[in-house]
Amino acid sequence: MPTIPARLRASAADAWIAVVDLRALLRFRVAGLRGRSRRLSAYGTGVIGLMTVLVAWLPAHLPQEMARRDDVFTLLPSALVGILVIGVVSAAASGGGRELVPRDQAVAYPVSPTTDHLGALVMAPLNIAWLLQAWVLLGATAFVTGPGPGLVLSQLMLLVWLATATALSQVVGWGLEWLRRGRRGVWSTRLVTVLAGLVAAYLVADDRLVPALEASPTTEVTIASLGAAHGLSWFYVRVLAVLLVIMLSAVVAGAWLASAVSRRPARDETRLESSAYQPRANPGSDLLAMVRVDRVAIWRSVPLRRGLAVLAVMPGLVAIAGDLQWNMLTILPGLVASGGALLFGVNAWSLDGRGALWRDSLPVEPRLVFLSRCWVLVEVLLVATLGTLVMAALRAGLPSASELAAVCAGGVVVVAQVVSASMRWSVRRPFSVDLRSARATPAPPLVMVGYSARLALSTTFVGIFFSVLARVPWEWSVLCALPLLLFSAWRLVRTANAWADADTRCRVVATVAS
Amino acid sequence: MHVPGPLPVVDVRSLYVRFGEVDAVRGIDFAVEPGAATALLGRNGAGKSTTMRVLAGVIPPSDGLVSVCGHDIRTETLTVKRLTGYCPDVGGLVPRSTPWEHLQLAARLRRLDGWEERARELLERFELGAVAHRVTAGFSHGMGRRLSVVLAAFHEPPVLLLDEPFDGVDPVGVEATMDVIADARARGAAVLVSTHLRELAVQACQDAIVLRGGSAVAVLPAADMHGEAGAGVYRGLLD
Fold first, then answer.
1. Among B9, B1, B6, B2, which residue's Cα sits nearest to residue B190?
2. What homologous superfamily does CATH list for B10-238?
3. N or C end of chain B: smaller count of CB under 10 Å?
């Protein structure tokens, strides 16, 4: 039986091999980028790096009003918890985190679970929600700390917290995936999720959320980080050391859990793939026939179903916890619709997978095929948005006619906007992806960051616009929605025309079916 | 006195297909008459699947004339799609739909009535009856190939295009595919089979076209490539 030092040596050797393999996979991924994709990836990485440096430095030079500074300081511990929550939700919803190399491509290589885990950690920041929250934290820290040499120490602490929170999120993500893959795993995971929701609801209902956040260890992290403005202290060093220990332990625990997950079959995926479905009556129209096929492509997919459920529920819970009023609920549809599109909509033709070739050989007008895909996308996004709004309305109470009109009109406008953008991107830049895995994304990670940033920007703008309209007579919301809807419709028609072009369609179909 | 043969169902003249800088197909000419089966043979990248995709209306030809039953594929794509049944070389199945749902979609778009009995019979013949209502994502490669052949053949098209129909298929599936080809020929359909399996091509078809680098290097009776001698002939055409 190996001694403990021998085991430690073996584990260290395994970890080193995993790091070497991770570098090889990163090179493989980068080598796969060609021409325009390579240039865009380089620009994307550069923009993210530049933005990070700017937000971590510029706010320090803003005018320092004591009251505003104190406000930001008070909110920082909760914002630090926020990145942990974002990380946990992302890791849990994506079945343990994103893949560095898609499963179908990596199958030929001996990629160990530890390498897979490290890859998921590297990929975690390539998520717009994570990036935005990290930028908010960096900017807020810079604002509170102010200019000076202490800023570097403050931001160093924050970066270590970001790494620690990400590693901890990954542990929770793998843990939930391990649970999900066990016997009655789906029900166990649902139970855990419901319990977490009930705890959150109790904290909110009993006004204990704020005291709980104030009592969180992130307060010490904030104090240590901001205290560095006055120079290095033992407290700072101690907090930094504790964070580093937690981070390293979480990375090791994550690797161990990733290994445990890899030994369990993905039960819900295999169950769905071996399930029988009762045949339905023959469809009454061509459009209905296609809508049916497109619809089941979403609802029979474990990751898409799970992702849509998370999208419908999470913003609703946030609205309940944050006591959002109707005039603020106009922001939510944009969030849900963008999230839904990022699950599959931005590469909508990939739902057909390798069946795209066969489908394109069927005698049907290409514009009808396009309409069917749009229909299903609209349907799915509206259902998820409606779910969120119903949840949010539980605490927001009864709306006025203006508020209701603003939320409804804003919702319809962002759904049309998101569908129009998604279909445009789907035709312009198709990708061959296997969306069977919860860890797959419809486009490469950097492309996803670009898509999500653009969607977040445009839908948030529309949300804020309709939030203002919630304060004026309801007719204004309807009137303002009309030109926006017409603009989205015009862009959709243009994309439909592009899809109807045989050369364009051939490129899309050949790509997604390859 | 020269007696003219029947008009070809598939007529390909000077077909070119270009993908950017690459010429996937370079000036191919061939015709397939009703009731005839022609094999497209050649190494990987020879242009077989691209030619099949053009005939299925999935890839537009860059140059040349391609007609199916007298319809120009460039201008009457939809009509050509109605006249063909296509088994693609890769996958060919929508992952989260069942075989029956594939058949329902195809039947609806092809305006078929009373198709259910034939569909059931074909599924049984290809030993897919038991999995008719299971999603195809869980299918083995061979099952997927067999279902693709069913989907190509079940509406009894005048032109049957089978791209790698025998790839990874067990003997029962091969036999069923051979029956489908024979049935199609018997009712006067033109059949094109693209495959790497020379002996099966010889068995299924009467003519063979050998492609190399996007061009046709030989058009010969399939029987000429039978057995050891045929293997030598074929090998010689590939280099």
1. B9
2. P-loop containing nucleotide triphosphate hydrolases (3.40.50.300)
3. N
CB distance from A103 to chain B under 8 Å? Answer: no
Instruction: Give me the amino acid identity at A49.
Output: G
User: B141 touching A, CB under 8 A?
Assistant: no
Nearest to B77 among A278, A502, A509 (CB): A502
- Chain B hits for A353, CB-CB cut-off 8 Å, are 91, 93-95
Choose, out of B63, B94, B139, the residue to mutate when testing the contact with A (most A CBs < 10 Å). B94
The string of pLDDT tens digits covering residues A365-384 is 999 999 999 999 999 999 99
Q: In what helix (H) or strand (E) does residue B87 lie, and over which residues does it extend?
A: strand B84-87
Q: pLDDT (tens digit, 0 to 9) for every residue of chain B, 239 residues total?
A: 455 567 789 999 999 999 888 899 999 999 999 999 999 999 988 999 999 999 999 999 999 999 999 999 999 999 999 999 999 987 789 999 999 999 999 999 999 999 999 999 999 999 999 999 999 988 999 999 999 999 999 999 999 999 999 988 999 999 999 999 999 999 999 999 999 888 999 999 999 999 999 999 989 998 888 888 888 888 888 87
Alpha helices in A94-127 (DSSP H): 103-106, 113-123
Choose among B79, B94, B104: nearest Cβ to A297: B94
Q: How far apart are CA B90 and CA A25, in angstroms?
A: 27
Judged against a pLDDT cut of 70, whether residue A499 lies above it is answered with yes
Distance in Å, alpha carbon of B102 to nearest chain A alpha carbon: 8
A 276-315 residues inside an 8 A Cβ radius of B: 276-279, 282-283, 285-286, 289-290, 292-293, 296-297, 300-301
Domain boundaries, chain B: 10-238
Q: Which residues, other chains included, contact B49 with Cβ-Cβ below 8 Å and sequence gap of 6+?
A: B88, B89, B163, B164, B194
User: A361 — contact with chain B (CB < 8 Å)?
Assistant: yes
Query: Which residue among A292, A351, A361 sits closest to B86, beta carbon to beta carbon?
Result: A361
**Which residues of chain B lie closer than 8 angstroms to A354, CB-CB?**
88, 90-93, 95
Q: What is the pLDDT of residue B3?
A: 56
Q: Tokens for B157? A: 């098209």
For every residue of B99-139, DSSP letters joined together read: HHHHHHHHHHHTT-SS-HHHHHHHHHHTT-GGGTTB-GGG-
